[in-house]
């Protein structure tokens, strides 16, 4: 019983194999004569005979490769056999049955591929608006960003990135609008009118924003009221816009007054710092995703940190296909713990921190530590510093109208 | 004269240098349960129907009895039989 079931299964498998066989098998019914001898002689010739089964007393059904038929026909007379060809299986017959279908099918597939390829090419880039010079500049920038006729859409930056880049790099442009229609891009730019310097500025004084001792002055416009090494309080007029004593001829005061200013500042210095830095050369990896979720990346990146992903959708005509292409940038990380030796570098550290607090343009001329407090990993310093900085502040003269 | 190669053959096989089917040119019969039979080195098909298959070999015939016998594959040197095999018999033409 078990054997029977097994045979049945084997036959089922054979059936599938027969259908899918790439060799092309033919079922042949051999009738009469010396069938066994006929088959033996065929097998001696090197012909593979399969599934030999007896139908009745002098009829046998076999399966052979279709290439063996000519040999069978040549040999059959010697053994007095009659041949009848029945079913045919396998790829060669499948192919010959559908031969007529294949060229149009290939044509359709090719045309789809063609459209797919062409849908992903930048077809036309048109820049409108602005002066010819600006347009030329914008065109050059677009070329470097990949928005170029004949380029792949996937090689191009995002539209929003391109807009931002144009706005940042070309000063004359005050508005950029990129509209995509099919695979052509229209870029509309608008130029800002160049701001001419305001000649007619309101009359103004320069007053001190901090108390300090004047160190040096450089007055471009206006009448200075202080002299070098004068001490000024906050709010004192340094350079006035009133050219005469009566206040009738007014101008705007312009210039720099560098003064010595004192500060008492608390500075905290970390003795050790844990730094996590990213290496500068990223690893670029590509992946393909289907429906946003099934993502496949051929090469993994190890345990590096993913910092940037660019999505590159694939288009078919106007539509975005669910298949898209991604670029990932992975950065290696370097960890380090920096130990600072306060005693050696205190000058630099303090200067750095002061500049951060007071502004980059200050010039520190004197510093003294008033109080020092050491923690396990921090040093707190109370400092007295003298710096040179520009203390001017514009104050518009109220003309009473 | 015939005596010496026979003795040599036995010597070779007894000391395990070569398999017996190679030395004697015997067919090699492999069975999987009672559903699959594989014969190498046969000399042709003599008779065959659903219940009985007779295969020629060097020294005589091999007779396979069973039900629903089908020759799955027939090649110059090999034969594969499937079905429910009841017995495999050896008929030597010399004796």
UniProtKB/TrEMBL annotation, chain A:
Keywords, comma-separated and alphabetical: Membrane, Transmembrane, Transmembrane helix
InterPro entries, A to Z: YqfD (IPR010690)
Top-level division of the source organism's lineage: Bacteria
A family per Pfam: YqfD
Membrane spanning residue stretches: 101-123
Record NCBIfam families: spore_yqfD
Protein name: Sporulation protein YqfD
Gene: yqfD
Automatic annotation (TrEMBL), chain B:
UniProt superkingdom: Bacteria
Listed NCBIfam families: spore_yqfC (TIGR02856)
Name this protein carries in UniProt: Sporulation protein YqfC
Gene from which the chain derives: yqfC
